[in-house]
Amino acid sequence: MSKGNNYSLDFSHIILLSFVLKWKYNITEKTRNNFLLFENNLNNLRTRELWIIFAENLR
After folding, report:
1. C-alpha distances in Å from residue 16, one per residue of 21, 22, 29, 30, 39
2. DSSP characters over 12-59
3. Rounded CA separation 26/24 (Å)
4. How far, in Å, CA of 35 to CA of 58, rounded?
5. What are the C-alpha distances in Å from 8 to residues 5, 15, 35?
6. How far is CA 30 from CA 18, 23, 34, 35, 37, in A?
7. What are the CA-CA distances from residue 7 to residues 3, 10, 59 (Å)?
């Protein structure tokens, strides 16, 4: 009977661990997405600067 209790405890630990890992994975996924957005914004700024330089040269 004590073995059964230990098994159920291990099982609940496994479930808890999977939740924690999923939560951590979601957080890393969000930070990765934020970084990609940040990178996109930088690229947009760079292209805008290039267009401004191009327009200045046209004058």
Report:
1. 9, 10, 20, 21, 35
2. HHHHHHHHHHHHHHHHHHHHHHHHHHHHHHHHHHHHHHHHHHHHHHH-
3. 5
4. 35
5. 5, 11, 41
6. 18, 11, 6, 9, 10
7. 6, 5, 78
CA distance 24 to 43: 29
Q: Which amino acid is at 8?
A: S
Residue 4's identity, in one-letter code, is: G
Parts of the chain with a pLDDT under 70: 1-9
Whose tokens are 């957005």? That residue is: 37
